């Protein structure tokens, strides 16, 4: 059986989270297939392993599906949702069950929106697959151990779709994005020894200094010619 070309070109949902955190890290992982683990990534992997077995359960007006496969050809994304809850409206028992994706994360809520973007991408995939609206989802952090509701408003949806397009562009680009410079995020990145942001940053700065020096020298030479007899 031949594979569908559209399916081959789908990119992982998790790449959007990496892209928000650091474009260079994203391309190293998803473009160059580089990976290294540290304590933070190991803890996150263990947390996801606990919910990564496909199964379903029903509790009255609630259906819980774990490790749910997701895909959207429109966005060019594929992946899995940790949990998708399907809620039934008691006042409308004949209405479709309402999907609500739930993503499990180690640690605490972050000061950037990488987790919200990843969750929104799951919701957009569910909408494309099921033809049902997904107005909100939830993030469950290990600290504190409670949910954070995430509304999928127009701004978050637009940002997520823009990032999906940017992801495809970056992975087709001929060169790595530049490294972060003196950024605290590098201290928690498991790829810091592969990325080597300090060395790459100095190399880029030296190249820029040389290029500007040549440009200034050329301008000076042109000016002397213009002032000559």
Task: Describe the overall structure.
With 229 residues, this protein is α/β, with parallel strands linked by helices. It has one domain: Lambda Exonuclease, Chain A. It contains nine helices and seven strands, in the order αβαααββββαββαααα. The protein has helices at residues 5-8, 14-21, 23-30, 39-49, 114-130, 154-172, 185-188, 192-195, 197-227, and strands at residues 11-12, 55-59, 62-72, 77-87, 98-105, 136-141, 146-151. Strands 1, 2, 3, 4, 5, 6 and 7 form a seven-stranded mixed sheet that branches. The longest helix has 31 residues, at 197-227. The radius of gyration is 23 Å and the shape is elongated. Residues 1-7 have low confidence and may be disordered. Belongs to the CRISPR-associated exonuclease Cas4 family.
Mean of all residue-level pLDDT scores: 82
CATH architecture: Alpha-Beta Complex
What is the CA–CA distance across the termini?
Answer: 78 Å
Order of helices and strands: HEHHHEEEEHEEHHHH
Which shape, going by the Cα principal axes? Answer: elongated
- The CATH class name reads Alpha Beta
Cofactor: Mg(2+); Mn(2+); [4Fe-4S] cluster; iron-sulfur cluster
Protein name: CRISPR-associated exonuclease Cas4
Keywords: Antiviral defense, Exonuclease, Hydrolase, Iron, Iron-sulfur, Manganese, Metal-binding, Nuclease
EC number: 3.1.12.1
């Amino acid at each position: 059986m031949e594979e569908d070309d559209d399916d081959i070109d789908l990119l992982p949902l998790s790449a959007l989270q990496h892209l928000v955190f650091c474009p260079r890290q994203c391309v190293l992982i998803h473009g160059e297939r580089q990976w290294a683990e540290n304590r933070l990534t190991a803890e996150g992997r263990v947390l996801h392993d606990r919910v990564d077995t496909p199964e379903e359960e029903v509790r009255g007006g609630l259906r819980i599906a774990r490790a749910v496969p997701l895909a959207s050809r429109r966005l060019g994304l594929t992946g899995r949702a940790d949990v998708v809850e399907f809620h039934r409206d008691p006042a409308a028992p004949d209405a479709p069950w309402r999907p609500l994706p739930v993503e499990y994360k180690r640690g605490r809520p972050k000061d950037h929106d990488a987790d919200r973007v990843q969750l929104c991408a799951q919701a957009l995939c569910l909408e494309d697959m099921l033809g049902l609206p997904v107005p909100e989802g939830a993030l469950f952090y290990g600290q504190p151990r409670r949910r954070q509701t995430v509304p999928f408003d127009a701004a978050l949806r637009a940002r997520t779709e823009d990032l999906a397009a940017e992801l495809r562009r970056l992975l087709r680009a001929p060169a790595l994005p530049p490294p972060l410079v003196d950024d605290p995020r590098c201290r928690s990145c498991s790829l810091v020894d592969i990325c080597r942001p300090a060395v790459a940053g100095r190399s880029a700065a030296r190249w820029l200094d040389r290029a500007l020096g040549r440009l200034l020298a050329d301008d000076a030479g042109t000016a002397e010619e213009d002032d000559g007899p």
